[in-house]
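A quick aside before the break. I want you to see a complete sequence-to-structure record at least once, exactly as it would be stored in a machine-readable document. Don't worry about memorizing anything.
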Amino acid sequence: MSRRLLFGVASAANQIEGAYNLNGKGLSTADILPGAKDRSHYIFKPQEMVETRFDYYPSHKAVDYYHHFQEDIKLFSELGLTCYRMSIAWSRIFPNGDDEKANEEGLKFYDRVFDECLKHGIEPVVTLSHFEVPLNLVTKYNGWSDKRLISIFGKYCKTVFNRYKDKVKYWITFNEVNSVTKLHFHSGATIPKAGENLEQLGYQLLHNQAVASSLANKLCHEICPYAKIGCMVQYSPVYPYSSHPEDVLESNHFERDRELFALDLFVKGRYPFYSKRLFSEKNISLDITTEELELLSSYPSDFISFSYYMSLSYGRKEIVAEKTNGNIFSGLKNPHLKSTEWGWQIDPIGLRIALNKLYELYEVPLFIVENGIGVKEQLENNTVHDLYRIDFLQQHINQMLEAVEDGVDVIGYCIWSGTDLISNSTGEMTKRYGLVYIDVDDLGHGSFSRYKKDSFYWYKNFITDYYKKEL
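That is the input. The structure line, written in tokens, reads:
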């Protein structure tokens, strides 16, 4: 391809920054999430979570990137990265979400972060809302269930676009936006009401975020004419459990409803052809206006970014088979694949399949903004010998490069993650993803010192060799 591939790492503000209440930052939805012991329960019971006082909140300290960002970005520079996918903490800019004026201290912090990246030749790729919303928008509006958040989000976008228009060329609106149909609080900042149709709520949240994303696209093109703005989904190709026609049909329905539905809204700018029957069968009736549909069709996403950690297998309801864990969505265990300690199945070829399918369906550039493996690790002699991570990353990058040869337009590839961070799914530090080990445990105890793993040197050598070949 004519475009030079970008190679980078990825993170999220609430998983790395810490400093949750410094310099004017307000509380976010991520700041009330507990750690590993209770996290998965309370993500699906948000009212209980809001009413409970926990002993420790992982995002409050995280890995203290707020005070270590220069050190970390210098490490990224040593890797030879050409991009860094990160996010802005919305509540660091607007502490309550609907404040009249932005928090200047928050804006200055990201000025320093972006300047540090650009100083080292690293392109910031910035997510506007990565699983965190100012908590006040939950208590005052019940989050994305209220359409007033569309204009509130628009004001936030307009503020950061104007501030950083000369520093950021790649923007992403919402992280893994397709998750909102299931994770109403975690992704949609909404507490469901008793007896509410949860399927309807999920698709209404998705609609409201799609409209907000199109508004952001419009503002970005007006304010930052040289920038690109894309959507982001969790994507796993879904294989039929067997060649039985019903397994093929069920896997197709699962992939469309949980993964591709959102992309039709964000990229094609319209509801998919199968939505009428889907909504009828789920007793869903959405609040949609003509003006919103016009905004969707007029301002679609410029590119698709996605996380890829695994493929899924799916089939008939009556199949008796071992289930496997997954990133948001789970499926049936594929006997042809190995699994991580957390049950996520490892499928490098699935990445090539994903890239080919998404490009065939949508014909816009693709950006892999998360790919990595979480493992329990111990520091030994100031390093970690993570050959398993090197093998994982090498195999997935090879399949991405095969997809490029296939003709897929790929913008770049980001490892999740550059440094260890708080796991989104479990709230742990124990589940380590980084190329750099950070000395902090699940309760925030440690020196916060940084140590390069073997995978750090492997990725550095890979990037150096790749760009030499491209010269």
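Two observations worth writing down. The chain has a mean pLDDT of 94. The longest helix spans residues 198-223. We'll return to this after the break.
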